[in-house]
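Quarterly update from the structural biology core.
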Amino acid sequence: MAKIKITDLTLRDAHQSLFATRMLTSDMLPVAKPMDRAGFWSLETWGGATFDSCIRFLNEDPWERIRVLKAAMPNTPMQMLLRGQNLLGYRHYGDDVVEAFVERAAANGVDVFRVFDALNDARNMQTSFKAVKKAGKHAQATLSYATSPVHSIDSFVSLARELQTMGADSICIKDMAGLLKPYDAYTLVKALKKAVDLPIQIHSHATTGMSVATLVKAIEAGADGIDTAIASMAMGTSHSPTETLVEILAGTEYDTGLDLKSLVEVSAYFREVRKKYKAFESSFVGADPRILIAQVPGGMLSNLESQLKEQNALDKLDAVLEEISIVQKDFGYPPLVTPTSQITGTQAVLNVLFGRYAQLSNESKNLLAGNYGKTPAKPNADLVARALKELNLKEAVTCRPADLIPNEFHKLEEELRQKMGVPTVTREDVLTYAMFPQVALGFFKTRANGPVKIEAPKAEVAAPAADKEHKHYLVMVDGVEHQVSRLSDADGNVHLHVNGTPFKINVAKAHPPTALTTPPAAPNATAAKVLAPMPGKILSLSVPEGARVEKDQPICTMEALKMEMAIKTPQAGTVRFVAKEGSTVKAGDILAEIV
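Predicted structure, tokenized:
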């Protein structure tokens, strides 16, 4: 039997880290057979950001993905990453929703549940553990690794002991930002092996360049398993190469026993598939020592880049990375892993763009108020007081947050049934709706169309003649940003080159847009304008049209950067909305006028 067990992350964390979780299921299935026979302890194929990405960008049903992958690879356990009481969303759910989600995930093909809580609050993992054990599946408890004045070997050992008493089958050290140094890994694993009688798994991103050495030292200290990614999908913000670790350990007491021939076949396949997703690739390659300070996990880096590109502020990336460490301290040193990485990272973006804490996202307020659980250290008292005031809370939450959430599955089921206008809905669809209500409703309408098409970029066309007007632009195509060349010629044609594909529009012959039956009223020049601070979507209006509002009163909730924020009035007056609920807006668009 193999001494060291390997979990391969190619089908989940690798592409989440390298190209924003955009890989289609159809690009996974052709290589299922060699992956299934390679001899992995498990294959991480689900959870994390895959659920969100499937319905938001790929028009794929995530439940169908796990079903077909399980059917295609029946000999290897399917593994998912589960955020404890958050499941796969950005809030805590009622216990009945957590129980239903785990039951359905197990029934659809998940065998190993890697359960974590972003704050390392064990109370937020207990319901998931019970549900996993009830389903007869493997419950892998997770220590979200971080370095700070309040994180220590003793604190991680204490957490591991608590998780063992809660029924964990194994323990994973989740080093999401590549912060775990090789000799620290040795010390931590030694301490854990003395404290708990459970297998220890090591998950360490390659972002800072230490991961291969970290895995080897952890193995020498007694680790039982490691996470890797196939070589053509490894390194950068991803993980250590599977083949490299297999060869390092070959012929030793730690020999993995994996079939190298199958691994080479898998790697060759993904080397070609990866070319299709070039447009989504993160610019972070090699090793980035800045992450040792910012502590940004691999999957978060590409999101930060995307957020700043949307604001035309990519030049502020270094400032955001520096700001993250300040926000993390103010928020009580939460480990930076979903959702706290997104909450902290997005808050850092807001701080850099608009001034420190000029805008607090709703998620930031809830984190400060204790609605996500107990932070490792006490957060900034002034920010806590502000969050409590804006959330209309008298005091911070100190109990298990889910104790304050009533059972909600049947309520969500009835909501979805009414919104879809159907007599019945599946439990899977109810859970999809629970995770991402707005996105799910749109997905259900387009699901029958099947997954989106993603093609490899074509070869670049020849550069245009120097005597013609030639400019570069960034445009959004199907929600993806592309570099575009625009060339105007003497015949009135505008030539666009999108990823090397030429388009020609004759401006002189183009039809004007159809006039609206009722033209929108012109903005009132004397009114105070409420502008969108960034691109996003209007989720809801907080007051009715024509309502009397006070200065700094929230008038609508906007989703931007996957976070929610309240948009407030600059002055007192009567509100007149320009943007509608559900509408998508650009930075600087007028949302409302106050007259």
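Residues 461-492, 497-501, 503-521 have pLDDT under 50 and may be disordered.
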